[in-house]
Amino acid sequence: MNDLKSKILIVDDDTYYLTLLKTILKNIDAYVHIAETGENALKLIEENDFALAILDIQMPDMDGFELAMKIRSLKNRDLVPIIFLTSYFSDEIQMFKGYDNGAIDYLSKPVNKNIFVNKVNIFLQLDLQKRNLISSKESLEKSKLELEIQQKEMKIKNRELLKSQKETEKSQKKYIKLYDFAPTGYFTINRDGRIFEINLKGARLLGEDRSNLIDLNFKEFIDNGMLLELNNFLVDVFENMTHLGCEIKLKTANEIPVYVYLEGAVIDEKQKCLISMVDITDLKKTEIALKESEEIYHSLLRTSPDGIIITDLQGTITEASDVAHELLGDKDSFGIEKMHFMQFIPNSSRREFVRICRTTSSDGLVQNIEIKLRRVDNSEFIGEVSCTQIKGQNGELRAYMTDIRDISERKLLEKQIRHSERMAGIGELATGMAHEINQPLNTISLSIDNIIYSIDNKTITDAYLKTKINKVFDNISRIKNIIDHVRTFSRDQDDFVQSELDINRSINNSISMILEQMNHKGIILSFNGPIELPGLKGNTQRFEQVMLNLLINAKDALEEKKRKLGKSFKKRIEILIQKTKNQIIIEVKDNGIGIPSENIDKVLLPFYTSKPPGHGTGLGLSISYGIIKELNGELEIHSEVLKGTTIRIIIPIITLSQKK
Question: How many other CB atoms sit within 10 Å of the CB of residue 470?
């Protein structure tokens, strides 16, 4: 037995009506396919075995009759049941034209939900029977024959239903029998509105027993506000023998909203009006739900704390939240719609913004990218941008949504915190700097003593004097370079000014600022570099801040282990650097106190520190992590208690030429 669900095809050029019909069938145990054109419908028919095709008659390029005829010409698709949808009651010729093209039934718009669902269920049951029969090879021919007989019987029954409306009083009993259990209300009235006949559904809609409704005036059940319009419709119907449809409210206990369809007809040589009436309560609820959903969407857009921008596929702004207007400097909230979003991107950020757009198109989502943006008055600010796709119900890309946050103040605060942490690092260097400067001063002093001694003994020569003076000047230059580097390191750096970052030089500069302090503490500091590395795009001083912070943390870990063990051990810090095809890997290893496993995930959090009060801000590793992330890198921590810690920095190789 085939367990696959049946498939239904709905074809209509009205997207709204397609959505409505699909919503009505949401509880049906079947796959619903939709198409807006005859061409698309034929492709689906060729690719799928449908239990039922529901076709709108009036469509551009290819109407429902032509589509039905082409379906009938397809191999193995000629038996697909077809129901036609029409916005008006066709004449008998049109009806038979539909049946000749393979129609099983007609439904008028708007469809009654119950009628529509019941008819669809009938064909789904037929399809289930068909597939069950096909699954058995022995009964294949029999099932096909039975399906054809059932379809022919359905055609005959619908033809009889159409003819029954125009038969004599004698055939009305048969007509009533056929229509008594129809889910649509059917009845007939004369010019004055007197009811001649009515089926059970029509009686239920009017809230009365059917026997009590005969000879009553239909107008008595119409809301007073709609009575004049209905009278005008009836005059037109009887004078022109035409058909009209309108929405009215019944003057019953529940005041049910209904859609009535009126069609003039001559029965027994008398003019009468045939009326079909459909309860549209569910349709009204759907309309209200759609309206409420749209109002909620606009409310969320207006009240969002972030700037929300909706753009079409070409980048033109179609909608913007109040905060977005404010962020982009449109204080009057009327100027940025219909503008291209690229107008708010300064030249320095356009390459990055193009990359964001391409990534969003390919991956569907980009989050939290920092980029400079431009306001209407051409002033600039730093924004954090997230961008995502907006898709239609069929999965097609319809638009883009961009979320904007102004992070200018946050970036300023981060800059101030980094500077404060750098100053804290300078304080840590104070003792080491004294040792670093003292060594060249001693060398200068000894050189001058040697020169004076040679002069006193009259043994000085020009070559000797020149050598000693050069040594004095070399050591003076060394002191000057140390002081200049500390001054440069402590100077505030512009976050957006980047140049070529030399990893080897940055590491050596960091070592030079702390080496004497390490020696004074008896710590063996080794570096396996330099090795040949490409220049990266980055900020040299900020990378030195990372290295200096890691070295200070390693020193403190060694000192803490010494205090805890109460005995000496060989204190070691090792800096290793290696280059792969696409990455540079720097490791800072120590054999210090180590980090408990439960705290490893915490040490990168701002203000978390294991040091005693007054000995750490808790920001060093957090800031270092942020600096490495700006290089598109990663910072990993591996540690064992009393064995040591390894900090690994992994930076992708992106050179200045690649960034351009």
Answer: 11
Class of domain 411-659: alpha beta
CB-side neighbour CA atoms (13 Å) of 14: 14
Say if CB 245 and CB 275 are below 8 A apart. Answer: no
CB atoms within 10 A of CB 307: 22
Give the model confidence (pLDDT) of 589-611 as tens digits: 999 999 998 888 777 765 556 65
Encoded tokens for 468: 């000693």
> CA of 153: how far to CAs of 80, 130, 437, in Å?
15, 16, 108
Concatenated DSSP letters for 536-577?
EEE-HHHHHHHHHHHHHHHHHHHHHHHHHHTS---EEEEEEE
Contact 343, 350 (CB under 8 A): no
Class of domain 171-283 as given by CATH:
alpha beta
Domain 304-406 in the same topology as domain 171-283 = yes
pLDDT of residue 614: 45
Asked whether residue 333 carries a pLDDT value surpassing 80, the answer given is no
Task: With CA atoms as reference, report the closest residue to 328 among 313, 342, 312, 314.
Answer: 342
pLDDT tier at 536, thresholds 50, 70, 90? confident
CB atoms within 10 A of CB 396: 7
Q: CB–CB of 370/381 below 8 Å?
A: no
Computed from CA positions of residues 71, 75, 78, 80, in that sequence, does the dihedral angle turn out positive or negative? Answer: negative
| SS3 per residue for 310-378 | EECCCCEEEEECHHHHHHCCCCCCCCCCCCEHHHHCCHHHHHHHHHHHHHHHHHCEEEEEEEEEECCCC
Contact 241, 266 (CB under 8 A): yes
Q: How many CB atoms lie within 10 A of CB 204?
A: 14
For residues 590 and 507, give the distance between their C-alpha atoms in angstroms, rounded to a whole number. 16
Contacts of 162 (CB under 8 A, 6+ apart): 92, 95
Residue closest to 42 by CA, chosen among 131, 33, 139: 33
* Tokens (6 digits) for 347: 């030249």
For 91, other C-beta atoms within 10 Å of its C-beta total 11
The rounded distance, in Å, linking the Cα atoms of 244 and 257 is 17
Map out the domains of the chain as residue ranges. Answer: 6-164, 171-283, 304-406, 411-659
Identify the CATH class of 304-406: alpha beta
Output the DSSP codes for 603-657: TTSTT---SPTTS--S-HHHHHHHHHHHTT-EEEEEEETTTEEEEEEEEE---HH
Predicted model pTM = 0.38
Task: Assign domain 6-164 one CATH number from 3.40.50.2300, 1.10.10.10, 3.90.550.10, 3.40.50.170.
Answer: 3.40.50.2300
Total residues belonging to the chain: 660
